[in-house]
Description:
By secondary structure, the chain is mainly alpha-helical. The chain contains eight helices and no strands. It is elongated, with a radius of gyration of 18 Å.
Amino acid sequence: xxxxxxxxxxxxDLVRLRRVRDRIDREYAQPLDVEALARGVHMSAGHLSRQFxxxxxxxxxxxxxxxxxxxxxxxLRRGDLSVTDVCFEVGCASLGTxxxxxxxxVGMPPGAYKREQARIAEGMPACVERQVTRPIxxxxxxxxxxxxx
Length: 149
């Protein structure tokens, strides 16, 4: 940054980083890796990772896994798929990695989440359910109280 106007290279990088984030949001279930994401926006994998983390607060891989876990939560709440089916449906190739990451983000393994959601979600409106069950990406960040006014 040069004071009054953003650096043109910074702005170009920001546009490319948003493209990467949008691609992850759209294609989370596809096999994506940092190298492929970086190639898609003509950046090196290292530069993409560093800049993405600066811009969005987490690595591209962490962002991708968060999107996958959010989608997995919705599929598990629906209740008609097994944990293994959900794992592959959201683009994870390893049930172990999926279960570990799910437990880190959600606070319990996917099977326990599925059982608990089946019990508590009965009769809850979908809009309330989504808000209550959304994972917190940065556990160390203090949770904001919902504004009801």
